[in-house]
Amino acid sequence: MRFRIRRFIKRAEGAALLVKGHSYEDLTRKESPFRELEQAIVARRHVTLDYSKDEGVKTYAALAPFKVVNHKGIWYLAARDDDQLKTFAFTRIARLRLLDTRFDPDPGIEAKLLAEDGIWFREVSIEVVLKIASEVGGYFKRRRLIANQVIAKELEDGSLLLSARVGHANQVLPIVRYWIPHIRIISPESLQTEMERGLATYLTRHPE
Predict the structure, then answer these.
(1) Beta strand spans in 84-167 (E)
(2) Is CATH 2.30.30 what the domain over 2-115 is classified as, yes or no?
(3) What CATH number labels 126-205?
(4) In whole angstroms, what is the distance from residue 170 CA to residue 114 CA?
(5) How confident is the model at residue 162 (pLDDT cuts 50, 70, 90)?
(6) Could you tell me the end-to-end alpha-carbon distance of the chain, in angstroms, rounded to an integer?
(7) pTM above 0.90, yes or no
(8) Structural Rg of the chain based on CA atoms
(9) Sign of CA dihedral 10, 12, 18, 24
(10) Which of 182, 179, 174 is nearest to 198 (CA)?
(11) Is the four-CA dihedral 58, 63, 65, 71 of positive or negative sign?
(12) For tag attachment on the chain, is the N or C end more exposed, with fewer CB atoms within 10 Å?
């Protein structure tokens, strides 16, 4: 399956797919809906689908699909739901069906998909500022470890002030947790508080 997907990517990339990485999720037994999505995107046809969420299954009656995005090896459908751009994990999609109605191209969405580092798309993003300790600053200077990161300032002690515009807290929090104690969220302060509260809950549940 992986080799068939690689050939499929080579043929379709640029039209229906956007690949940001070099590893691909195993889509065994999912090739048929994958190709149907490609057809819908190229023909600009609305789709209906069921999507499995933690709280249950939700049916989307008329999505406008723009791209199938591979982010860090995982496939997502980027589609417009009414006027909001959303992402859907491909393996959670079921009962996909192409509709006869069509939607118009949207250069703004296409540009946003190309520019965004992650897969969380919001009309209003937030700016997060972090302080990176000098001991690990080199890692953040060599590559972008956080979506849309910009090194705002390098301090005299070698630490960094880093900013990033994100659409979802999960674009930041997993990285911050990974680099504890060498990284701290300066603003918004509520995000640092949220992370600390989550860590405190974890330690309460797993004291050993």
Answers:
(1) 84-89, 93-102, 126-132, 149-154, 160-166
(2) yes
(3) 3.30.70
(4) 20
(5) very high
(6) 42
(7) no
(8) 20
(9) negative
(10) 174
(11) negative
(12) C
